[in-house]
Amino acid sequence: MSNAEQPAPYAGTPADPTAGAAAGTGAGPRRIRIPHLQQFKDSGQHFAMLTAYDQYTAAIFDEAGIEVLLVGDSAANNVMGHATTLPITLDEMIVFARSVTAGAQRALVVADLPFGSYEVSPAQAVESSIRLLKEGLVHAVKMEGGAHYVPHVSALAAAGIPVMAHVGFTPQSEHALGGYRVQGRGDAAQAVLDDAVALADAGAFCVLMEMVPAHVAAQVDAAVAVPTIGIGAGNATTGQVLVWQDMAGMRGGKAPRFVKAFADVRSVLSQAAKEYAAEVRSGSFPGPEHSF
Asked: Do 204 and 158 meet the contact criterion of CB atoms below 8 Å apart?
């Protein structure tokens, strides 16, 4: 890559993630790219990642300065109503991906490879990823699994497809793991570290860790040169990710320990729906100002 082709330095800071292009100053990059995430790692800064499944939330998060949007297979249980992430198909993921890329003008958009779309062979992983990039218009894919998938990651990297590794708790393997359990405790910590190092060495541009003890995640972050992302993995990682419905307080019931709700959108929507219904029933909506 020539000097003229080098990406513009990222202008955001941990204190002001909307600095630069997201704030309309023109100081930051027009599009967050993988080298910008590496700049965060190299400079000791942090970036934010949220899931998104439609154009409106994608546009809102994009405008807010969120650097990475994840079209997660979590759409299966957060949008489609399934009990797990397993039922969602590649075709369905492509629809969600295309919706998000339609709304995101600046964020790096990553899509999950859903269960059944990559496990058979490295060739299957490449074929599925090509569809996500060509039809879903995403910029990178994410793959769950440990060192067993080194050949898959290598094949994707050789094909020019950016791949984010996902280790620790991997929801697609929840039945094999015995449910939602923290991974990497005690003697199992070395396995998480070994998986992360192997996948990074194979060509993964980033390693995401889910439900891993904070000290283990810190060891992984120190051991790999690429950026790391945590969800339930402490604050030593380069980035953090949450499901947007969790972050915004959309879901009901008890949330996982690692979730913090930064708003109560569920109550806001509920109140708006109640007021709408009340006005419809009373006949006050639509009024003359809403009629032709």
From this structure: no
Is the whole model's pTM more than 0.85, yes or no? yes
* Gyration radius from the chain CA atoms: 20
Q: 276 near 105, Cβ under 8 Å?
A: no
* Six token digits for residue 184: 């990497």
Sign of CA dihedral 60, 131, 112, 84: positive
Catalytic residue among 127, 135, 174, 210: 210
Beta strands in 159-248 (DSSP E): 163-168, 206-210, 228-231, 239-242
Residues 6+ apart with CB under 8 A from 41: 225, 226, 227, 228, 238
* Residue 135 annotated to the active site: no
Residue ranges for the known binding site for Mg(2+) are: 73, 112, 144
Name the binding residues for 3-methyl-2-oxobutanoate. Answer: 73-74, 112, 142
For residue 136, CA distances in Å to 85, 217, 231 come to 19, 31, 25
Chain segment 43-57, per-residue pLDDT in tens: 999 999 999 999 999
Question: Which residue's entry shows tokens 């009629």?
Answer: 291
Taken in order 132, 88, 210, 126, is the CA torsion positive or negative? negative
d(CA 155, CA 187): 31
Q: How many residues can be counted in the chain?
A: 292
